[in-house]
Design goal:
By secondary structure, the chain is α/β, with parallel strands linked by helices. Helices cover 34% and strands 21% of the residues. The protein is built from 18 helices and 22 strands. It has a nine-stranded mixed beta sheet with strand order 7-8-6-9-10-11-12-13-14, with helices on both faces. Strands 15-16-22-17-20-21 form a six-stranded mixed beta sheet, with helices on both faces. Strands 3-2-1-4-5 form a five-stranded parallel beta sheet. The longest helix is centred in the C-terminal third of the chain and has 21 residues. The mean pLDDT is 92.
Length: 501
Amino acid sequence: MRRYPAGSYFQTHSPAGKRITVMGLGLNGGGEEAVRFFLKRGAFVTATDLKSEAELAKTVRALKDDPALDAARLRFALGRHELADFADADAVIKNPAVKYEGNRFLAAARTVESDLSTFLALSASPIIAVSGSKGKSTTASAIHYGLCRAGFTAFLGGNITVSPLSFLEQTTVRTPVVLELSSWQLADLAGRGILRPRVAVITPIMRDHQNWYGSMKSYVADKKVIYAGQDASAWTICAARDPWGDEFAAETPARVLRYGAAPLPDGSFGAWLEPDGTGMIRLPDMREPAVAVDALLIPGRQNRLNVLNAALALAALGVPPETCRTAFAEWRGIPHRLEYFREWQPAPGCAVRFYNDTTATVPEAAAAAVQAFGKPVHLIAGGTDKSLDFAPLADALKAPGAVFLAASICLLAGSGTDKLIPLLDERGVAYEGPHDSLEGLLRALRTRLLRRFSAARQNGETDAQEIVVFSPGATSFGMFQNEFDRGERFKKAVAEIFRER
């Protein structure tokens, strides 16, 4: 974990007239928003990326065609990096997916910042920060939704593909900002002292990004940045009955709230799920526990825990649990996270519901998706490995007594799939594939579903309902640009292949 100088360059320097290099233009808005932000503030901007102009055509076109931007102060260096663009810049805005260690371009820079460090230096908003390995996007989005329902003007940004620079000018001391933060984004903030969240939520920690970090110790060290700048007036929310949660609770300078899937020990404060799924909250100023989560539209016990964590964060900010309970009963979740988006009815009494869970990029997340519906699902999984153990997913697909928890398993090709297949073979779990294309996989699945419905009708069934879940449990490199591209292409392919006939 690299230690940056305290503070931010932009706490003491105006961008006007400065030479700014944006490293990593990208396709998800972060680099593009940084370019817009600095151009509008009078800087001279160089946007550089190893991807070619053809690969970044959409982003480049959006910047070139924007009449609000001064194109004379914008230069592109695409398909390459030039050392002078870093050495001569007043500040370099780094994409969080770029490693600092061993990078000669960043080593040549006078000052290295990120869109988040810039935002935190310039905004006076109270911050609610969310990180972890699983559930952070759902948790952050639910907190934002709950704040808005409670009457706040609130904003959501960070790793959820919305740069906070896009709404910086609208923020004040009265507008709370929810930031979803990846371990890489937190690493870029380490040692600066500018991340001081009023509430820090750490969702469950599990093995992730080990191809980047090489050890859980270094991975978790970056996660700890989320509470390093807190004080005794703030709150840290972390898992109960969990070794990482215990470590976070012991280290944070803030007050601690714990969460879990089972009731907390007497005297503990935080949130838990009752056996029936009801979410309870107990805070130090409450005489008795209160219901904060009841009926939900989004499926799965893990999602209940994510929403409960959101309710706990809101309660720590003073939002009544009853307000949370009412608001979350109407929340439909977020795109790409167990997102219901289509139903196919090929014949009377036959229906298939499709769910897009493309942001399940670790095996444990795909395992949770399999178990979220209370019935066997048709699982589409597989992708690129990032040095993870796929045993949790393989184990989730077979219960004791050789009961299979998936109606079928369809695999996409990839290095992660190559690790999963032997584990399925060892457990005697059948699967289809691996397929070299998403379209080919879906056509094969369509044929099998039609056969399944035909057999059901022959057996006299009049209400045949199936669920298809795209929950890869792996990353998306190779076949897709990223997990969001993967999810959009999945939805598009389903719309084309599963037409009602």
